[in-house]
Structure formats: structure tokens, C-alpha cells
Prior knowledge:
This protein has about 100 residues and is mostly helical. About 85% of the residues lie in helices and about 0% in strands. It has one domain (about 5-100).
Amino acid sequence: xxxTTAHSRKTWAIALFAGILLAMRIGIARSGIxxxxxxxxxxxxxxxxxxxxxxxxxxxxxxxxxxxxxRSPWSRVACWNSSLVGSHRSLxxxxxxxxxx
Length: 101
């Protein structure tokens, strides 16, 4: 893959990711889901974005990029797991669920 093609692919991946997030934001705001989130729309969208990001960008070549930089298999596993854990911790942390427990 030439550098121009790789750059174009990255640009499209980022643009499509932003488009998906925007479509989710508009769709949720227009439906009754926003009211059921009780003012937690932004944290819910953040959690969705953090959960989708690793899956989306690994599909667009992030795995190869990380494989070049992270030599140890354990570091790759830790990177993947931390990206998924971060998404699951963002919604409870921003809504105060950790303080109420």
C-alpha cells in the first residue's frame, strides 16, 4: 500500500467514524432514548464511541500499526483490553455510579 493510499484510508476511516457518531447523536436525540438516559446523553455517546473506536480502527489497519510498535504479545493484549475497559468505565464514572455504590 502506498503512503498516499494509506493516508487516504486513514482519512476515510476517521471521517466515517465521525459520521457514525454524528448519526447516532442525531438519531438518539430525535427518538425517545435521550429522555430515558436522564441527562446522561454525552456520557452514553462517549461510552459508545470508546467501545466502537477499537473495533472500527482495527478494521482499518490499527492492528498492523500496533504490531510494528508493540513487540510483546502481552503488550498487545493489554492495549486491546485497556481500550475496551475504558469504554465500560466511562459511563459509570461520569454518571457518579462509583460514588453511589
